[in-house]
């Protein structure tokens, strides 16, 4: 019996490099505000990656947490 897994959605963009640069610039703008100036870009990127992996895992396993 084959297991049905949900397919991941890919959001296409005409220019991935420009979109990536826009996202990084927005991220830097947030980090440079007084509220978050104690954090580094690498720390925030790590947190975002961990969050992405958590929700990816939940999507694959069907968990809701």
Helix residue percentage = 55-70%
Straight-line N-to-C gap: 27 Å
Tally of helical runs? 2
The helix/strand class is: mainly alpha
Overall 3D form: flat
Description:
The chain has 65 residues and is mainly α. It has helices spanning 16-31, 41-61. The protein is 57% helix and 0% strand. The protein has a domain at 41-65.
Reconstruct the topology from this structure:
Layout: H1 16-31, H2 41-61
Compact summary:
Helix content is 57%, strand content 0%.
Offer a few descriptive terms.
2 helices; flat
């Amino acid at each position: 019996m084959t297991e049905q897994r949900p397919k991941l959605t890919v959001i296409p963009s005409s220019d991935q490099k420009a979109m990536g640069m826009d996202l990084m610039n927005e991220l830097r703008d947030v980090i440079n505000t007084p509220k978050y100036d104690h954090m580094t870009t690498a720390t925030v990127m790590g947190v975002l990656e961990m969050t992405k992996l958590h929700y990816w895992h939940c999507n694959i396993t069907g968990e809701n947490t």
